Structure formats: structure tokens, C-alpha cells
């Protein structure tokens, strides 16, 4: 696998080695050993999958301490724009984001460390999205910031009138009204 660094330390794009022939393709979608060598030590404990139709926007979600989550995400069918927003108070990149297109054809994966809000928009007719988490889901720790916050400068590639959001996702605060539960000290969550 090739690890592509982004503008925000710790947020990386992973491109697997794909072996193609007349039968189709094969790739190793996850190797704990190689992930630790190239990205870092993370113990994933839960895998999730969602299916969504065009225009669905999910996020921007996170879990509050002590149940923070790092995620490794990928799109196995269709096409999504995936986004990580730095919500670590004191971080030099606070409020900045990284966006990457994940598709069934590029097989890219996106690693989002703890201290980031995460969301995605479905750009194809339907999309199946999978993600690994290093902490179990805890509903009492659920948090979010508004996926439609224009101050974040995210081009979701979907006209607002076509956006489909859950009721919960329409109620998250804007970044300016948000009190982050995360603190950054030299790149580490404290």
C-alpha cells in the first residue's frame, strides 16, 4: 500500500496495490502489520457499512472523550466525497478540512485520526460505504458539527437543494458555535 500524506498531519489517503488480470482484480484491503508500519498503531474493534443514494450527506460526526474514534473508511460501491475536519482546539489546522473522492474504482481508503469530525456525500446513484473504528459506538458520546457550515469551505459537489440529511444532522451547531471536547498539544489529543 502507498500512504499519501495530506495537508493535515495524521490524516492520510491509502492506495492499495491492485493486481488485475483477465479474471478481475485482487487487493489486500487491510493488513494490521502494514498499517502499523506505514501509518501507526491502531486497534480497530468495529466495522460498519452503510448504503445511501445520491445526495445523501452524513456527518460531520465524532464521538466525545473518553470514547473518541479513529476511522479507516472506503467506498466499495459507487462514489463519495469524504471529508475530515480538524476539531482539535489549539491545533494549527483547527477548522481546516481534507476532502478525498473515494470510489469503487480507485479503491482508496481514508484514515481519520481521533480529534476530527467526519462526513461524506454520495455522488453516485447509490454508494456502499465501509469503515473500521478503533472504539465501539457509544450513543451518549455522539457529537457533530453542521455538514452545511459554509465557513468550513467544503465543496460537497452536490447542490444544496439535492442534499438529503437526517433530522439529527440538521441540528448540529456551526463551527463558530461549537465547543470542542478535544485539545491538541504538539499534535496529540489531550
Question: Can you summarize this structure?
Answer:
With 190 residues, the chain is mainly beta. The chain has one helix at residues 32-38, and strands at 2-5, 12-15, 19-21, 24-26, 46-53, 57-63, 71-77, 79-86, 88-89, 97-103, 109-112, 116-122, 126-133, 142-144, 182-185, 188-189. 4% of the residues lie in helices and 43% in strands.
Topology:
Layout: E1 2-5, E2 12-15, E3 19-21, E4 24-26, H1 32-38, E5 46-53, E6 57-63, E7 71-77, E8 79-86, E9 88-89, E10 97-103, E11 109-112, E12 116-122, E13 126-133, E14 142-144, E15 182-185, E16 188-189
Parallel strand pairs: 9-15
Antiparallel strand pairs: 1-2, 2-11, 3-4, 5-13, 6-12, 6-14, 7-11, 7-13, 8-10, 8-12, 15-16
What class, by secondary structure content?
Answer: mainly beta
For the report, how would you describe the main beta sheet? Answer: 6 strands, antiparallel
Strand order of the largest sheet: 1-2-11-7-13-5
Succession of helices and strands: EEEEHEEEEEEEEEEEE
Helix content: under 10%
**Distance separating the two termini:** 30 Å
Q: Unreliable stretches, pLDDT < 50, 5 or more residues?
A: none
* Mean pLDDT value: 94
Rg, Å, rounded? 16 Å
How many helical stretches? 1
The tally of strands reads 16
Shape: globular
Beta-strand proportion: 35-45%
